[in-house]
Amino acid sequence: MENDIQEIRATIRDIPNFPKPGIVFKDITPLLSSGRLFRRMIDLFAERYRAQRVEMVLGIESRGFIIGSPVAYALGTGFTIARKPGKLPYETHTASYALEYGTDTLEVHRDAISPGARVLIVDDLIATGGTAAAAAALVTKLGAEVVEGAFVIELSFLNGRERFKPCKTFSLVQYERE
To answer: In angstroms, rounded to a whole number, what is the distance separating the alpha carbons of residues 144 and 135?
Structure first.
């Protein structure tokens, strides 16, 4: 497993000054383009959560959709999405949050998750934790339980897991500094 994690890490590329000056964007598109590594990434998540009675996977827009849906498939669970405002056609619940470079909002359909369901939140990256915390707030608002937040990348130096508490955080790759 450790070799797989190191290979996944080596495939992630840095894009300096994106989306704005001073930000180093962690680009997972090379990882996604490798069928072998993409499959291994999904398998690593599925192996971790297979015994945890996950009933629904929530993918955060947009890379969380790419990762979360095959994780849900591997676990045999349902999949739902948290999107930016105005993208969902039915009645929604909304949560706003601060990003490391601005503010944003997430929405979920009011009937996306059954009360009491055990939900795994999936996204490509946790940075300051605002997006993940907003997703967790939406899950809780629907009366469900967050099993954990699963991320490909964690920017540990931004302390996002602290903001995501009391929910647990799991990440495949951690960066201790920019």
So the answer is: 12
